[in-house]
Amino acid sequence: MNAFKLDGRDIPFEPGQTILQAVQAAGQEIPHLCYHPDFKPHGSCKLCSVRINGRMVSSCTAPAHDGMTVESDMPDINEERRTLLQMLFVEGNHFCPSCEKSGACRLQASAYELKMMSPHYDHFFPDRPVDASHADYLLDTNRCILCSLCVRASRDVDGKNVFALSGRGIHTRLIVNAKSGRLGDTDFSGEDKAAHVCPVGAILRKRVGFAVPIGQRPFDPPHEGD
Amino acid sequence: MDPMTALAEAPNAATVVRDAVARHGGDVHDLVQILREVQEVCDWIAPEAIDALVAELGVPRTKIEGVAGFYSFFYLAPRGAYRVLFSDNVTDRIAGSAGLKSRMCRNLWIEPGKVSEDGVVSVDLTSCTGMCDQGPAMLVNNRAITRLGESRIDEICELIRSRVPLDEWPAVFFRVDDNIRRTDMLLGSPFELGAAMKAVETRGAPGMLDELLASNLRGRGGAGFATATKWLLCREAPAAAHYVVCNADEGEPGTFKDRVLLTRRPDLVFEGMTLCARLVGARRGFVYLRGEYRYLLEPLNRVLAGRREQNLLGLSILGVAGFDFDIEIHLGAGAYVCGEESALIESLEGKRGTPRNRPPYPVTCGYRNQPTVVNNVETFAAASLIAVYGGSWFAAVGTPQSSGTKLLSVSGDCARPGIYEYPFGVSVGQVLADCGAGAAQAVQVGGPSGNCIDAGEFARGICFEDIPTAGAFMVFGRQRDMFDVARNFTRFFAHESCGFCTPCRVGTSLLNDLMDKLARGQGSPYDFEQIEILNHRLRSLSHCGLGHSACNPVLETIAKFRSTYERRLVHTQYVPAFDLDRALAEARQMTGRQDAGAYIGDRK
User: Fold this and answer.
1) Residues B126, B175 contacting (CB under 8 angstroms)
2) A-chain residues within 8 Å CB-CB of B47?
3) Are residues B448 and B423 in the same domain?
4) Which helix (H) or strand (E) holds A90?
5) B466 shares its domain with B326
6) What CATH number has the domain bearing residue B147?
7) Is residue B235 domain-shared with residue B371, that is, in the same domain?
8) Which residues in chain B are closer than 8 Å to A170, comparing Cβ atoms?
9) Which residue of A has its CA nearest to B517?
10) Maximum Cα interatomic distance, chain A, rounded to a whole number of Å
11) Where in this chain does the record put each 2Fe-2S ferredoxin-type domain (chain A) (predicted)?
């Protein structure tokens, strides 16, 4: 059987699987944000970077090879991941205490998991729009981390191309498929896969915010005595 | 068309789009070319033009806006009938471009980066335009203007104020000199049209590959991959189609040798592509020419037409049945990252120029996922000569691992900037002596992503074994502050990051901010440490070479010119970058106040 070592543990894999796919199939995890098992991985957030033969590679796109040795949960690698998270936090406008995605946000959960204690860098405080034009969904690009999961979901699953990335470099931004630039003028709907893949609080269903009490949200730490 | 008329009767966007799309056979793979052609007529990509593109190409609006938004030279908002972009390479700065830009803005009564109130003109910066030996330079509506000075700037302002069409501006403004200072085999060997292809037909494909192998030719783009190996891999990759791509996206600041090669010896380049096509079995080839060299498009197309007339391109080339090949020129649109081969291919396919995940490499999975050879302009030219003169002729020149010659683009503080062709192995000092750089303190070899060589290393050689380079050679005299040089390069990388991966997208901006902080006199040893940490992160985590090399200029100048940094570490303890008075600048401007009471601290 094909297998590689992840931090000393054996991980079996099927030919064609990437490292992250094999790790997840084995019930283990590597921190990640832009990867989702339903879509073609593209390796942009770099949070899932692991070390192979001294080189860092994105585990979501790197194919698994028999006998390879993969380092992931190492202090220095986690330090690098913290930097990536800090970069994402200062690049956008992330105010966790007032965000209704708090407790269900992968960016926030990753920051807790990797023990990010502060944003460290100066905030960019970019001027980004909030779009409340859609009847059922709110688009708040202040929280967008440009993972393009909604882009891939809308294009590859919904067949709609509601979302895309435009701009370049630090000015890269999420756009929607309407001349007005407003989500309400697209054919986006709550039935879309794209409505359910945002790892942060950029695409939010309206009128259900804060419905789940603190302590019961997906990424809340287990209660004492649980 | 007279801009006054143009403003009065804007061209009908739908008609312009329909014509452009028709010229490209409705192929969305040509989107970057279609957008360029539309903008050349309409001055920008208006929402109505996008409507028409959506209808004509049958693609979603997000596709058009996503692609157009990626390239610096496409405008989704009006930028005026005259779009002035000052080349912002450090060599332009040395030659006084910043003062000229201010003069122009004052003259035209506009703020840099903004469009004039009458919508006629905008003035902004752009990355190096490849005119470093005759700068300061600018682009006006993507046409290169060289040798700027105060009087030329004043003349240009007058022409813009009088709305004189660009075609009627003095031709001398647009003159681009070759400035060839030293020639060797590539620029000097006699070459008869079609000779390389005739040689291939005589030798046969395996014979030609043997010559290429014997020549030890390595890619001239900087990475130095063996050309024979690349062509062989592509030849052996089974596929429905093979492609040949010439990378003429000469974006590395300080490099301009491809411009000269394409001006002086285009046939050598096209013939190299054709013989490559013969060997790998390609029927279609592209030259990806950087948008800054837009003015070369018509002359190069004339050369291609001439080659078709002589049966050196087209069907049954030289009468050989089945030898069909043709070349198209695609223009870039202001994106340095498209010099990376997989990003270049994405751009050729009409997409955002984001580097692909590799492997697979273009040689097996390139343009339209078919095996594709991507080589530098200079590599194809060298291959033509190898076909004619043989592999051993070529291998006899240069060093053991770097055969042949290298074209160097020499600029900066020297008496004779221009193109110098040397056998590989030439020392930095020799080049400096030849170009008349008496008092150099440093040379940036290979551009911002290359190496900074200080006076103690001038004996080192230019070759793959020692200092590899794609050709940039920027000289800095003792009067230059190497911190300013590094800061210019850092700004370049931040501007050119494609934005795909987190470390490069955010990290290059963080680095740029840190350099600005040091420049403002807020630096401390802590910031130094931060620069080093960022460098490590960029190198280790970035998706492509742009991110990997973005910290090079800073690290190298720290290592070699530490005092210029230490001078800026005025504080021993950390000082925040935030400065209240700086934050109030906008409020002061809005209220028109400059008095002492409008400042918290000392008025600066």
Assistant:
1) no
2) 179
3) yes
4) helix A75-91
5) no
6) 3.40.30.10
7) yes
8) 494, 497, 499, 505-506, 508-509
9) A122
10) 55
11) 1-76
- The minimal CB distance from A46 to the residues B51, B68, B502 is found for B502
pLDDT at B8 over 90: no
Q: Does A61 touch chain B (CB under 8 A)?
A: yes
Q: Does domain A3-73 have CATH number 3.40.630.30?
A: no
Is residue B568 in some structural domain?
Answer: yes
Domain spans of chain A, in order of start: 3-73, 82-205
Which tokens sit at A172? 């890269």
Mean pLDDT throughout B121-128? 97
Which residue range(s) make up the domain with B546? Answer: 483-573
Shortest distance, CA A46 to any CA of chain B (angstroms): 7
Residue B158's pLDDT is 97
Q: Is residue B7 part of a domain?
A: yes
Domain boundary among B444, B465, B480: B480
Name chain B contacts of A49, Cβ cutoff 8 Å: 540-541
Q: Return the exposure string of A113-146: e unless at least 16 CB atoms fall within 10 Å of the residue's CB, then b.
A: ebebeebbbeebeeeeeebebbeebbbbbbbbbb
- Structurally, chain B folds into a number of domains equal to 6
What pLDDT is attached to residue B9? 62
Minimum mean pLDDT range among A206-215, B42-51, B74-83: A206-215
Q: Which of A219-223, B328-332, B358-362 has the lowest mean pLDDT?
A: A219-223
Same domain, B371 and B433: no
Check A166 against B357: CB less than 8 A apart: no
Any domain includes B59:
yes
Most distant CA pair in chain B, distance:
84
pLDDT tens, residue by residue, B165-199: 999 999 999 999 999 999 999 999 999 999 999 99
Q: Nearest-CA residue of chain B relative to A44?
A: B501
Least confident piece of the model among B41-55, B195-209, B577-591: B577-591
| A6 DSSP β-pair partners | A9, A70
Identify the residue among B505, B526, B529, B582 best suited for mutation to test binding to A, counting A beta carbons within 10 A and taking the highest: B505
Query: What's the average model confidence in pLDDT over B103-120?
Result: 95
User: What is the Cβ-side half-sphere exposure of residue B240, based on CA atoms within 13 angstroms?
Assistant: 3
Cβ partners under 8 Å of residue B172, min gap 6: none
Specify the 3-state DSSP secondary structure of B7: helix
Please, which pLDDT band fits residue B2 given cuts at 50, 70 and 90? very low
Instruction: Tell me how many residue pairs between chain A and chain B have CB atoms under 8 A apart.
Output: 119
Among A61, A80, A90, select the one facing B541 at the smallest CB separation: A80
Of residues A43, A46, A177, nearest to B61 (C-beta): A177
Tell me the whole-structure pTM to 2 decimals.
0.95
Cβ of A168 within 8 Å of Cβ of B70? The answer is yes
Determine whether the interchain pair A165/B66 forms a contact, defined as Cβ–Cβ distance below 8 Å. yes
Q: Do B63 and A172 touch (CB under 8 A)?
A: no
Query: Is the pLDDT score of A225 beyond 80?
Result: no
Q: What is the mean pLDDT of chain A?
A: 95
CB B237 within 8 A of CB B371: yes
Task: Answer whether B66 sits within 8 Å of A124, measured CB to CB.
Answer: no
Task: Verify that B435 and B422 share a domain, yes or no.
Answer: yes
Same domain, B270 and B372: yes
Is B231 found in the same domain as B357? yes
In a domain, B74, yes or no: no
Token pair, residue B601, equals 């601290």
Best probe of the A interface among B500, B518, B575, by most A CBs < 10 A, is B500
Q: Which among B46, B68, B90 is the end of a domain? A: B68
Task: Please name the residue of chain B whose CA is at the shortest distance from the CA of residue A169.
Answer: B499
> B41 with B98, same domain?
no
Could you please report the per-residue DSSP string of B53-75? HHHHHT--HHHHHHHHTTSTT--
Give B66 to chain A, closest Cα distance, Å: 4
Q: How many residues does chain B have?
A: 604
Q: What is the mean pLDDT of residues B357-374?
A: 95
